[in-house]
Design a protein that fits this description.
Shape: flat
Structural class: mainly alpha
Distance between the termini: 12 Å
Strand content: under 5%
Number of strands: 0
Largest sheet: none
Number of helices: 6
Order of helices and strands: HHHHHH
Protein backbone atom coordinates (compact mmCIF):
# COMPACT_ATOMS: atom_id res chain seq x y z
CA UNK A 1 0.00 0.00 0.00
CA UNK A 2 2.94 2.32 0.69
CA UNK A 3 3.96 2.20 -2.98
CA UNK A 4 0.63 3.76 -3.96
CA UNK A 5 1.18 6.64 -1.55
CA UNK A 6 4.62 7.19 -3.09
CA UNK A 7 3.08 7.08 -6.57
CA UNK A 8 0.45 9.57 -5.40
CA UNK A 9 3.22 11.94 -4.27
CA UNK A 10 4.92 11.56 -7.66
CA UNK A 11 1.59 12.19 -9.39
CA UNK A 12 1.03 15.41 -7.45
CA UNK A 13 4.58 16.57 -8.16
CA UNK A 14 4.11 15.91 -11.88
CA UNK A 15 0.92 17.96 -11.83
CA UNK A 16 2.64 20.83 -10.11
CA UNK A 17 5.61 20.84 -12.49
CA UNK A 18 3.13 20.66 -15.39
CA UNK A 19 1.40 23.79 -14.11
CA UNK A 20 4.73 25.54 -13.77
CA UNK A 21 5.64 24.64 -17.36
CA UNK A 22 2.32 25.97 -18.62
CA UNK A 23 2.82 29.15 -16.60
CA UNK A 24 6.17 29.63 -18.35
CA UNK A 25 4.56 28.93 -21.72
CA UNK A 26 1.85 31.51 -21.06
CA UNK A 27 4.38 34.33 -21.48
CA UNK A 28 4.84 33.55 -25.17
CA UNK A 29 2.78 36.54 -26.28
CA UNK A 30 1.02 35.20 -29.36
CA UNK A 31 -0.65 31.97 -30.36
CA UNK A 32 2.18 31.19 -32.75
CA UNK A 33 4.71 31.90 -30.02
CA UNK A 34 2.79 29.64 -27.66
CA UNK A 35 2.73 26.80 -30.18
CA UNK A 36 6.51 27.15 -30.62
CA UNK A 37 7.16 27.17 -26.87
CA UNK A 38 8.56 23.85 -25.63
CA UNK A 39 7.08 24.49 -22.17
CA UNK A 40 3.59 24.01 -23.61
CA UNK A 41 4.45 20.49 -24.69
CA UNK A 42 6.38 19.65 -21.53
CA UNK A 43 3.42 20.80 -19.42
CA UNK A 44 0.96 18.85 -21.55
CA UNK A 45 3.06 15.69 -21.40
CA UNK A 46 3.45 15.99 -17.61
CA UNK A 47 -0.30 16.53 -17.15
CA UNK A 48 -0.99 13.48 -19.28
CA UNK A 49 1.54 11.45 -17.28
CA UNK A 50 -0.06 12.61 -14.05
CA UNK A 51 -3.53 11.65 -15.32
CA UNK A 52 -2.38 8.16 -16.34
CA UNK A 53 -0.72 7.70 -12.96
CA UNK A 54 -3.91 8.90 -11.28
CA UNK A 55 -5.94 6.26 -13.14
CA UNK A 56 -3.48 3.57 -12.07
CA UNK A 57 -3.60 4.70 -8.42
CA UNK A 58 -7.41 4.77 -8.48
CA UNK A 59 -7.40 1.09 -9.46
CA UNK A 60 -5.75 0.27 -6.13
CA UNK A 61 -6.93 2.93 -3.68
CA UNK A 62 -10.29 4.36 -2.67
CA UNK A 63 -11.43 7.44 -4.54
CA UNK A 64 -12.39 9.00 -1.20
CA UNK A 65 -8.69 8.83 -0.22
CA UNK A 66 -7.01 9.65 -3.53
CA UNK A 67 -8.99 12.77 -4.39
CA UNK A 68 -8.38 14.61 -1.10
CA UNK A 69 -4.69 13.65 -1.19
CA UNK A 70 -4.30 15.28 -4.60
CA UNK A 71 -4.42 18.57 -2.67
CA UNK A 72 -0.74 17.90 -1.97
CA UNK A 73 -0.26 19.44 -5.42
CA UNK A 74 -0.87 22.84 -3.80
CA UNK A 75 2.08 22.29 -1.47
CA UNK A 76 4.40 21.41 -4.36
CA UNK A 77 3.11 24.41 -6.27
CA UNK A 78 3.90 26.77 -3.40
CA UNK A 79 7.41 25.35 -3.04
CA UNK A 80 8.15 25.48 -6.77
CA UNK A 81 6.73 28.97 -7.17
CA UNK A 82 8.97 30.14 -4.33
CA UNK A 83 12.08 28.43 -5.70
CA UNK A 84 11.64 29.07 -9.42
CA UNK A 85 9.31 32.06 -9.79
CA UNK A 86 10.61 33.83 -6.66
CA UNK A 87 7.12 34.26 -5.24
CA UNK A 88 6.71 35.10 -1.56
CA UNK A 89 5.51 32.61 1.02
CA UNK A 90 3.17 34.38 3.43
CA UNK A 91 1.89 33.31 6.84
CA UNK A 92 -1.49 32.60 5.26
CA UNK A 93 0.10 30.25 2.74
CA UNK A 94 1.98 28.42 5.49
CA UNK A 95 -1.22 28.10 7.53
CA UNK A 96 -3.01 26.78 4.43
CA UNK A 97 -0.27 24.19 3.88
CA UNK A 98 -0.55 23.13 7.52
CA UNK A 99 -4.28 22.52 7.07
CA UNK A 100 -3.69 20.63 3.83
CA UNK A 101 -1.16 18.36 5.52
CA UNK A 102 -3.39 17.84 8.54
CA UNK A 103 -6.35 16.99 6.29
CA UNK A 104 -4.26 14.63 4.15
CA UNK A 105 -3.01 12.79 7.22
CA UNK A 106 -6.52 12.46 8.67
CA UNK A 107 -7.96 11.22 5.36
CA UNK A 108 -5.22 8.65 4.85
CA UNK A 109 -5.56 7.06 8.30
Amino acid sequence: MMIYFVLLLVMTLLGSVASLSLKKASGSGSLIGLLKNVNLYVGGFLYLSSAVLNIYILRHMDYSVVLPLTSITYIWTMILSYMILKEKITKKKILGVFFIIAGAVLISL
